[in-house]
Amino acid sequence: MNKTRLQQLGQLLNATVVSKILTAADWEKDGGKRHPEIGDSVDLKKSCLMVIRVNGSELHCIEIAATLTQVEKQLLGWAVQQGGTIRPVSGASDLERQARRLGEWIQQSVTAGEWRAELPDRMELRNRLFDGMVPFLLLCEQVEEKEPSYGELEKTIRTFISDETLLIPLREQEWLILSSDRVLTEADTEGDEVLGHEETKEVLSTLAEGLHQLITGEWGGDCHIAVGEPIVPSENVVRIVGTLRETIFLGRKFHVGMQIHLPWLVHLERLLSGIPELVRSRFVEEMMGRPDLFTDSETVSTLDAFFSMDCNVSETAKKLYIHRNTLLYRLDKIKHEAGLDVRSFNDAVLVRILLLLYKVTKRK
């Protein structure tokens, strides 16, 4: 609300009116309800606070230095609701406005640490959410052309995923995509009616890669996608957003250059991320036979491929397009220089941890 509007409102109410920005925590501390909406108000000692806009965890409010009657607050709240929306977008459709409201609520809940929060009945999109929806988290940065609008992005996504898909804006350049789990059977090349757990993960990975190619092909830039297994959105949408955000963070931290991030592949990274930097650096220095072992790109690529192939020598050689004996020579070289044999389970675990930690510490 601009200065002129504030002055006009102050004249009507015969009181001083100023704008304020509060956090959701400050709002609750002042006596406001959790998950406030436009038009909600709270009485202070000598004034009244009213929400005029919700922007993530920030609440744009007006403070009126007067004691208002209940009717005055209701009328003012109604007027504010008619004149303002969450992140107003010119020409936005009803679906986009509803999606943005849902995104604001999700963001508030994540910020507040309420990962188990259930979707409130007031959300208009609640009736379009159903059990078994596949969540994708899309993060686009450094877009080469102009940033896609909600409508453009939704239209593009619908060319790849089924019509039963919702696009929900979260933070700047970040979107949650919820799609029917039918997309799993549609993408399954073998045509199985019921996919096993591992088959489901493989299909999800393929879908994420396809979506990434679609987005980058249309708009370019640096795009990251995380995908989770099917959820019940009304109960788990906040939790999955937090999980997928952490997955992208860990993927970018430990695996530079990777754009597809899968929660079930970063368990070890999640554990190592919690270790203090000083402890990580000291551990790497003490355990490595040669400090410069991982500076050799061939060694790193060989180990990455070896671990991604579950330490299978034959499959790793195929992945690297080298002879099996060449791979064995490289592994023996690592054993000689580092004193660790990655064909032994214990040593393989240790080298895997060292490699992950080195990738982080070398960029400090």
From TrEMBL:
Chain ranges of the PucR C-terminal helix-turn-helix domain: 300-356
InterPro entries: CdaR-like_regulators (IPR051448), Homeodomain-like_sf (IPR009057), PucR_C-HTH_dom (IPR025736), PucR_C-HTH_sf (IPR042070)
One Pfam family per UniProt: HTH_30
Domain of life: Bacteria
Classification via PANTHER family: CARBOHYDRATE DIACID REGULATOR
Protein name (record): Carbohydrate diacid regulator
Originating species: Cohnella lupini
Phylogenetic lineage: Bacteria, Bacillati, Bacillota, Bacilli, Bacillales
